[in-house]
Structures are given as C-alpha cells and as structure tokens.
Amino acid sequence: MKPIVVLTIFIAMAIRPALATDQALEVLHWWTSDGEQAAADVLKASLAEQGVAWTDYPVRGGGGDSAMAVLKARVIAGTPPGAAQIIGPNIEHWANLGFLQPLSDPVLNRTELFHPVVNELIRVDGARVAIPLSIHRINWLWLNPRVFQQLDLPLPTTWSQLIDLAPALREAGIVPLAHGNQPWQNATLFETLLLSVAGPTFYRRYFVEHDDAILNDPRVVETFRLLRELKSLMDPGIGNREWQEASRMVAEGEAAVQIMGDWVKGEFRAWGLKPGEDYLCLPVPGTTEQHLYSIDTFVVFRDHPNPEAVPAFIDTLLSPSVQRAFSEAKGTLPVRRDVSVADFDDCARAAHHVFVQAGDEGRLAPSMAHSMATSPESEDAVFEIVHRFFIDARVTPETATAQLAQTLRALK
Ligand code: BGC
Distance between CA atoms of 171 and 79, rounded to whole angstroms? Predict the structure, then answer.
C-alpha cells in the first residue's frame, strides 16, 4: 500500500465519529416475551448499524407495572438508564419532575407525521420529551380456527354466543377462554368489557374524566357481572399465568379464545404461526368500530453518560423501515402516518382503519390498564378493586362498582 493511502486511512480513522463499540445506550423496557424480544431485536440491530450498542435492561411483567417500579428505584438511587419505555400521561409526570431530556430532533416536530393523540402524548409545555414508536389495539379476540372447525362451532361475535359455546368446548377438553389472573390482565379485560358494554363516550367519561354523574351507572355493574361470567369460562389454572402462556394455550388448541392486545400477534409470529390459518382475530363483541389503544413511547433521561447516542436512538425508532419491520414483529401499527400498512396482515389493516376513523370522529378509547387514560394512582386503585372482585366471589358487582366510584371520585 502506498504511504499516502496509509496516511489517508490513518487520518480518516482518527477523525471518524465515535462508533459502535465506543457508544452504548442502556434501555429499560418490559418486552420479555418471544414476540416482544424479536421486535426489540429489530431496534437493536438498527441502532448497532448506526454505531450504538443497545444495552438491554428488560423488566419482566406485561403491562409494565414492575418496569415502572424498577425505574423509580433506579432514579431514586441516582442511576437512571439512558432511555426507558414510559407511556401515557406518565410521560408528563416524569417531565414535570425534571428528569427527562427535551428532544430536539426535527422529525419529532413534524406534527403532520403523527396522529393528534400521539402529538399530545409526546409534548409537554411545548417541548418534545418522548419518542413515539407504535400503536397497539387492545380490544381483540384471538381464536384458534382449528378448534372451531373440528367441533363445527361458529366463531363467536357476541358475548352470549361465546358463553353458549362453552359446554361444547369443555366437553372436548378445551378451555373456552385463556387468561392469566394478574391484576393488569384482569384490568385489561375489565376495561375492554366496559368499552363493549357502554361505548367509547361513556368509557372516556369514566376512566379519563371520572365523571361523577356516571360513576355508579348500572352499565358498570353490568360490566362487573360480565367479567364474572367470563371468569366461569376460564380454567382453574389461571393462577399467575403470564399473557403469553395464555396465548400459547390458544396456539396449541388447548384453549379456544384469548382476549388481549395485539402484542399477541407478535407472539404468534415469533412462534411461526400464520394469520388466517393458525389463528384468527376478531374485534371484541360490541367494539368492531372502536379502538382501545396503547401507544408505545420512549423517553431519554437527562445527564446520562452517552448523550451522543441519542440522535441515533431517535433515528432508529422513527426510521420508516424500522417502523415497518418493528410493527410487523410486534403485531402493532407504525406510529408514522406515512408508513403504509397496505401489505400488513388483515388484523393490522383492520386496526389501522378503525384507529384512523375513530380518531377522526373523536371516539378513540385510551387504555386505562396500559397507562393511557389516567394517573398512576387511579390506575393502581382500579387494578386493586377489579382484582379483588375477580378473585373473591363474595364481592358483588354492586359493591365493586360502589368501591370504584368512591375511589375514582376521591382521586379526581
Ligand atoms: C405495551 C406493549 C406490551 C404489552 C404487554 C403494553 O402495555 O404497550 O408494548 O407488549 O404491554 O407486555
């Protein structure tokens, strides 16, 4: 090699920007199932391409409650991660406490790229403090089509149909409804049922506004009653079952149906299952036109050791090709409006259609159980009351309604 070439390479190496091995960003999140990890791998690979290593800090527990507890402990100890999955109004809470790094990336300022609910979530006092990633729809039934074909049973589109199918399913040794008895799973089911029973306007008045006029409404009593009825379709093994274990039961034909957000689809995909053949999605009865959403977002903490890694992190999360690959792996929708979902699967396209329509018509339902609707204190209180009702048959629907009304009123 000529000396001049060697010198050029040497100079280029000396002045190159710090790359991969020099930089790392620790990311705290609650994606620990197979599908969630496959989706996170898409982000890790893209970040690595930009010269930043993603240092993984996963905290087990669907819905993120444990992750939030661990995050608080780390911040109190003075060792926050570089970035964390924080979602919903909690972003504002952390920003107001002064922990979050305002983000100046121009893409975040392009409001036309995102849906209005997304712009609202990521902005606090005019500053962008979170990076949006994707939009989940929660009000889904996941079904094993073979179970229905083999027993010659119709796919349930109403609650009474699902309840009526239970004896035939049980007789064939199949659990009608797969579920895990964890407070966040019970709360996810409860909010889905409230949306089904009472519709999106009532849902918002109840979970977002805690409107005194409706807190004791008979529709809440009816929702608790339905929750109890659905519990009778579950198996005695609900114990502390994780959501993905319930999904596994549906995938293997051990159970017929699961009610859960579309992260289940990411799980099925990670297990090699095909939509339409190995599993089906149907909107939860009474919610075909509704979209109960959870939007995944990340924040960056102030004063972390590698501020140079932040632009690459934002770029990764918002790059159109990553948005597409991540969404397909995770079972979710890209948060960027300019990423087409035309060649996504039927469930994703249906979710997209409903999200846009419900958004235009002002009837989107923010998930309480997934921190989109209310303060963490109210969320904890709802979890506690719904969970107690779920595990203790002596608590009547009327009592649970009154307890919830009293609590939501106090926390308004
Ligand atoms: C998050 C999803 C996650 C799910 C289950 C939701 O709160 O938005 O990204 O897959 O919880 O852990």
Answer: 55
Residues 25-62 as b or e (16 or more Cβ within 10 Å = b): bbbbbbbbbbbbbbbbbbbbebbeebbbbbbebbbebb
For ligand 1, atom 12, the nearest C-alpha belongs to 62
User: What are the pLDDT digits (tens) for 362-409?
Assistant: 999 999 999 999 999 999 999 999 999 999 999 999 999 999 999 999
Which atom of ligand 1 is closest in space to residue 371's alpha carbon? 7
Q: Which residue's C-alpha comes closest to atom 9 of ligand 1? A: 296
CA-to-CA dists, residue 211 to 222, 362, 412, angstroms: 18, 18, 9
Beta-sheet strands, E only, within 301-340:
333-334
For the CA atoms of the chain, what is the radius of gyration?
23
Strand 280-283, strand 140-143: pairing: antiparallel
- Measured by CA distance, the residue closest to atom 11 of ligand 1 is 63
Closest CA to 244 of 29, 30, 44: 30
Substitution candidate for ligand 1 out of 28, 29, 31 with most atoms within 8 A of CB: 31
Ligand 1 centroid – CA 135 distance (Å): 10
Instruction: Note the pLDDT tens digit of each residue in 324-364.
Output: 999 999 999 999 999 999 999 999 999 999 999 999 999 99
